[in-house]
Design goal:
With 224 residues, the protein is α/β, with parallel strands linked by helices. The protein has two domains: 2-122, 3-Layer(aba) Sandwich (Rossmann fold); 126-220, Arc Repressor Mutant, subunit A (Orthogonal Bundle), CATH 1.10.10.10. The protein is 42% helix and 21% strand. It is built from eight helices and twelve strands. Strands 2-1-3-4-5 form a five-stranded parallel beta sheet, sandwiched between helices.
Length: 224
C-alpha cells in the first residue's frame, strides 16, 4: 500500500514517514500542494495524509482539486488549529477523516489503516499490460492463465513498473519507490531484482514485456 504524506515541516514529515514504513506502507513525501497534485497525476496512492497549512497552495485547495478531478483517494487531513469550522470545511471539501495537531502517531497510523481498509472494500484496481495482470487488492499476478508467484519486493517492483507502463524508469527512481531509499546503495540491487522479475513474467512467453534501456533504466511495454 502506498501513502502520500503532504507536510512542509520536515521533522513531522520524517516522523510520519518512518512510522508508516514501520507498519509496512510505502511512503512518498511532498512539502507543498503543487508537488502533491503533480504526484497524484503520475502515481496511484491508497491514501493521503494532507496537512492544511502548506506554503503556496494549501491543503484544502489540494483536496478540492483532487475531488474535482474525480480522484477518490481517501484523505486524512492534519491541522495545527483543529477549529470546528476548519474541520467542517475539510469534510465538506471531501476529506475522509481529520486529525488535529499535536497527534499521537499510533492514532495517525490507525486512522490511515482504517482509510486504506475502507477504500479497499470499495475498489479493486487491476493493472494490465498485454496478457499480464496485477490485482492491487489480492496481490495476485497472472500472465495469461498462469499464476505468477512473487516475493514482496518483486511485487512492488512490478507494481511500480506497471503504474509507469511505457515510461523509462531509472535505477534511482526504482530505489526510491520500491525500496524507499533516498540514496543510491551503490550495489546492483535493482539489476538483480529486475533479472528475477523478468525470469518470472517473460521466460516461456513469446512476447517480452520487461526491457532494458542501456545506461538509463528499465521499461515495461509491449514489443513494437
Amino acid at each position: 500500500m502506498r501513502i502520500l504524506v503532504v507536510e512542509d515541516e520536515k521533522k513531522t514529515a520524517s516522523f510520519i514517514r518512518k512510522a508508516l514504513q514501520a507498519e509496512g506502507f510505502a511512503v512518498d513525501v511532498c512539502g507543498n500542494g503543487d508537488d502533491a497534485l503533480a504526484a497524484t497525476t503520475t502515481t496511484t496512492f491508497d491514501a493521503l495524509v494532507l496537512d492544511i497549512m502548506l506554503p503556496g497552495r494549501d491543503g484544502l485547495s489540494v483536496l478540492s482539486q483532487l475531488r474535482e478531478r474525480k480522484n477518490a483517494t481517501p484523505v486524512l487531513l492534519l491541522s495545527a488549529r483543529g477549529e470546528v469550522n476548519e474541520r467542517v470545511a475539510g469534510l465538506n471539501a471531501g476529506a475522509d477523516d481529520y486529525l488535529p495537531k499535536p497527534f499521537i502517531i499510533a492514532e495517525l497510523v490507525a486512522r490511515v489503516r482504517a482509510l486504506v481498509r475502507r477504500g479497499g472494500d470499495n475498489k479493486s484496481i487491476v493493472l494490465r499490460l498485454a496478457d499480464l495482470a496485477l490485482d492491487t487488492i489480492s496481490h495476485e499476478v497472472k500472465r495469461g492463465h498462469a499464476k505468477i508467484e512473487l516475493t514482496v519486493r518483486e511485487y512492488r517492483l512490478l507494481e511500480f513498473l506497471l503504474r509507469n507502463t511505457g515510461r523509462i524508469c531509472g535505477r534511482m527512481s526504482i530505489i526510491e519507490k520500491v525500496w524507499d531509499y533516498d540514496f543510491d546503495p551503490g550495489t546492483n540491487l535493482v539489476d538483480v531484482y529486475v533479472k528475477r522479475l523478468r525470469e518470472k513474467i517473460d521466460d516461456g512467453f513469446e512476447s517480452k514485456l520487461l526491457h532494458t534501456v542501456r545506461g538509463i533504466g528499465y521499461v515495461l511495454k509491449e514489443n513494437e
